[in-house]
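Late entry, evening session. Most of the bench is empty. Finally got around to the prediction I had been postponing all week. Sequence below, unchanged from the version circulated by S.P.
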Amino acid sequence: MQKDLRRFLNYLTAERNASPYTISNYRREIAQFLMFLEADGISEWSDVTRTVLRRYLGWLNSQGYAKASIARRLSELRSFGRFLMRERIVPQNPFRAVSSPKLPKRLPSAISQPDARTLVTAPDLTTPQGLRDRAMLEVLYATGLRVSELINLQQSQVMLEDIGSKEFLPELERLWGEFYLKTHDADQAIEHTRQAITLAQTYSDPLEEAIAHRLLGQIHMASGSPQLAEEALNASLSMLDHLNNEHEIARTKLALARLGLIEKTMPRNEMQAHLKEAIETFEKLGARVDLAQAVALQQKTE
């Protein structure tokens, strides 16, 4: 059975071009099922019956696995079963004998603040097109305009004299910090980012303060000051832990792992632990860009 799993993993790599992270998941979670079979005294595929599968799903449930996680494992086993049929190892897919757990139906939810931030900050501010796109996204997000209304918006229709609430100022200063980081002007980047931290404290915005601290760490990392970078990143992580913001915590752990790889500021096992936690969070939240960066960095640490 282990030999069949190895052949399946080779198939996923060579023919399906699956990502290393997908391969790792299949290897770990199908191997878990094979260990369950071994403990149950089963060594032949012909002995994998509906009763055996129901015992396995019941065991997963008793171990505290969520329904979504159980459903994913069963889906992976069904893919494995299709491969076994293709190779004529089994006459039919044994994992079709049981149904997936019924997942609760949820109403569509609005885009989260972290996802909105990711969307709005996606354009490259070092280019004129990026600055244009950023301005358009900011206006869309802040006003609720339709795209057609935005496209036809005239400068004479925009009033900037009375900006009302100033709570957006910390983020604005931080965005300038990001801009100067990308244009390799460390002094300006640090100045604006520190101003963002001060304004975030003034307007009681702990999340923006934590994100600005992370940016400050990234600026120090880019300018070759690893000790200052580590201090700023750890300060960001401490604040985010209190806020329980999973996405931003994962982003900060990714930044700490990157610093550890570049400057050797932490043991390799601690760096890998940060990356593992970050990858799990990005995968759960569907943060594909962050996930790709984390997986690429993880490969460099192996």
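Two things to note before I forget:
The chain has two domains: 2-97, 113-301.
Residues 113-301 form a domain with the Serine Threonine Protein Phosphatase 5, Tetratricopeptide repeat fold (CATH 1.25.40.10).
Will write this up properly tomorrow.
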